[in-house]
Amino acid sequence: MILQQLFRFSSIFRSAISVHLRRNIGLSAIVFNKAKELDPVQKLFIDKIREYNMKSQKAGGPADVGPEYQKDMAEEIAKIQRLYGGGDLTKFPDFKFEEPNFEESQK
Q1: Alpha helices in 1-107, H assignment, sequence order
Q2: Residue 95: partners with Cβ closer than 8 Å, 6 or more residues away
Q3: Torsion of CA 11, 17, 21, 24, to 10 degrees
Q4: Running DSSP on this structure, what letter comes out for residue 1?
Q5: Which residue positions in the chain have pLDDT lower than 50?
Q6: What is this structure's pTM?
Q7: pLDDT, tens only, 72-89
Q8: Are the C-beta atoms of residues 62 and 69 closer than 8 Å to each other?
């Protein structure tokens, strides 16, 4: 009887340790991959994203676009202004909500 309880305890203990070890191995694998240098394809992809980001910051908008893009963008903005009643589409709308008066008695 004591031997059965000991085996039962050891199996619970073994399963808890195995879960703990799997989690630690998984975490250490992630940390190890972060510490390693990126593979060449990932490095090239990240370099291109950074290059595009710098170009778009210099251009003040999308990079490497021509006058046709600007014309299409102006047409689409005009269409949206006609559909939704005009206004400035570059700023967030200002909402004004009135506070309800709860002190009024209902008749």
Answers
A1: 2-35, 40-59, 67-83
A2: none
A3: 150
A4: -
A5: none
A6: 0.40
A7: 989 998 998 888 877 777
A8: yes
